[in-house]
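A student in our group prepared the protein record below, which I am reviewing. This is what I was given:
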Amino acid sequence: QVQLVESGGGLVQAGGSLTLSCAASGRTLSSLIMGWFRQTPGKEREFVAGNSRSGSATRYADSVKGRFTISRDNAKNTVYLQMNSLKPEDTAVYYCAADFDTQYGLRTDGDHYDYWGQGTQVTVSS
């Protein structure tokens, strides 16, 4: 079993920044591909960013490219999502997720991820 706990969400004005953290336990982070997703009521869950087991490979949704950065500290078993230049449309519940099946590389479909955190709310005011 893997437990994922997100933190760092909150209320921020447009143009501001937030850093989300996702602490993993139950398995070493270096064995997992990690992703960040977000969801707003009435909308499909959306892939935001992901990184490989070493953190050397990353992937971003077009909507956040250049503004968000995913990183990880495998020694601390923690993944981060640095969010800059936030926009009201970034408002959502953000979830981190872990993919065990690393043979397929970094995937953007949440259905392939095995464990999920409880989510953290990010609200961007205009």
User: Anything to note?
Assistant: The radius of gyration is 13 Å. The chain is about 0% helix and 50% strand. The first strand starts at residue 3 and ends at 7. The chain has a mean pLDDT of 96.
